[in-house]
Structure formats: C-alpha cells, structure tokens
Amino acid sequence: MKSHILTPPVAQPGAAPSQAATGRTLNWGVVATGRIVAKVLGDLQALEDANVCAVSSRDVVKARAFADEHGIERAYGSYQELLADAQLDAVYIATPHGQHFEIAMAALAAGKHVVCEKSLTINAAEARTLVNFAGERSLFLMEALWARFTPAFARALAIIESGELGEISWVQADLGFLAQYDPAWRLFDPKAGGGALLDLAVYPLTWAVGALGFPDSVQAVAQLNADGVDTQTAINLGYAAGGHAQLMVTLTGNAPQQARVVGSAGWLATNTPLHNASQLIVHPTDGPARVEEFEAVGENYGYEFREATRCIQQGLTASPTMPWEHSVKTMELFDTIRASVGVRYPNDLLTH
After folding, report:
1. Catalytic annotation on 118?
2. Model confidence, pTM
3. Which of 2, 62, 118, 191 is catalytic?
4. Which pLDDT tens digit goes with each residue over 259-281?
5. In terms of CATH, what superfamily is 148-349?
C-alpha cells in the first residue's frame, strides 16, 4: 500500500540532516523568543548555509537579551521592524497560532520566504489565503511540522509502502500532558488559538495521514473549559475503503504519546513521544518482531530546515514533503472538528 505523503529527502534510517551547504547562504530572521525558538534555533544555526542574523519580540529588551544569548546580531522590538530588514531572505515564525496569519502575510508582502510553526493558521480560510498569496508572490511557504521530516517517521512510511504490514486498516495515536490552568497561557487563550486540538492533534494526525491519507468522514467529542477551548478531544476518522483512525489529544493528563499502525500482515508502533520517536517496534505476522533505533541529531529540527533551505535555494515555493494542500486540508479537518464540538476563535469572525 502506498503512503499518502511523500517520503522526506532524508529517508534513510538514522540518516542525519546534512549540515553542509547545498547552495547560497540564507539570512534568517526569527519572530518570537519563546521556548520553542530556544529549542529550534541551534539546529537551524548548525546548517552551514543558514545565517540567523535577526530576532524580534514585542519587548526589545527581551529580544536583545535573546539575541546576545544565541549569538544573533540584530534585535527588534516588533515583527514589522524585523520584516523591514532588507538583508533577510527568510523568516521563521513561532508566535502563538492566532498571530500566524497576520505575521506570515506581512512577511510574504515584504518579500520574505516563510517557515511558520504549526498549526499554520487558525482556520482553513486563513490557510487558503496565505498559500494563494505565497503563490502569487512566488515565495516559499512551509508549515513547520517537523515530525514529518524525522528519520523514524520516514522509515515508518517506507515500511508501510513496502507492503510488509499488508493493507493498512487501523491507526491509533495519542498525545497529551497535564497542563495546569493559567488564563494567561496561550494554551488556554482563545485569541491565541488555545486548546489541545490546534496545539497537539497535528502530530497524531500525521500518522493517520501517512498511513491512510485524509479521511472521508470525521467524528469528534471534546471537553471544553470555561474559556471555550478544548482541554481534551477524541477524534474518529473514517475511510471509504474501510480504514479507521482513532486519535486522542489532551491537556488533562500525561498520555502514552505513541502511535500504532495496523495492517493485514502486521503492525508497527512508536515509543514515546510519537512526534520524535527514537524507536519503531515492528511486528510482522509471519516473522520475528524487531526494534529499529534512531538517534536524535540536536533536537531533530534540522531535518525540516534542511528541506526548507534546499527548496528556497532551488526556487521552489512549496516543499514536496509538507505541501500546501496538506496544510489546507488539515485546517479544513480541524474546522470541521471545532464546529462539531463548539470551539470558536475570534479569528473565525474575520474575513480574509
């Protein structure tokens, strides 16, 4: 059975992302200084053809401190100032979800290539507008769904494509942790696109889409808090050919954080966490079980930035591994789920 997304360029089991230059050096700017940026930055800076030369925050003092800590030359007190920097070729956006559309549109309008954290936008209308604008401007745009580029996921796709597991019929995946309520935290802020769905569900969904494609039907139930964001959501995906996927995301407890793919001739599973697995456990029906190991390279974000850099250098506007169509379809699916469980965001009221 063929998988429904393309195998990443770094598809060899355990292969490290090449840090050697594959083309001209790109000058990067980073929008935001939060926890995720601190994790990602080292892997981006490790690429020989990536020069991270600017960072922005709403607080210029915070931006300057972050820049000094990470060896970045220029610090700005707003994303508008950063985007006015004529030396920048590309920007990495890592703000809360609710700001992604505004900043990514501004970056494209300023002529910058864009890598934007997941989820790409709040809703499908924003996603469609964004990708259409990138196409009109002939600029690269990619959702930073780093899990798609890791060796363990690439290897899992290769196993599925090989037919070793037979016809895939069932995927089960979960992701969750205990998040202590704080109304100021983006996870619980509707303006930021808070909730388990937008923050976590894309990772379990990646396994379902990789094995079965996008679904023909979806059902969901969710637990909402007083702020109107989902603290737990269960998703059932149906496929006309007979496959099913069961996905769970939660902010109410520590989940196993594993994925399982079941076929007519065997099954495979990840260890924890499914979005950055270091092991695949493979159980063929007619053969011995085995464990395949994968060592992390840095924080494992280098794979997605190697792909983005390669695409920009080659004049591509979209990554074959993380195509625009998949980002838009994901937001359409999430829109359907949110409508069924009653989650609404302020961005939904805007016309783009």
Report:
1. yes
2. 0.94
3. 118
4. 999 999 999 999 999 999 999 99
5. Dihydrodipicolinate Reductase; domain 2 (3.30.360.10)
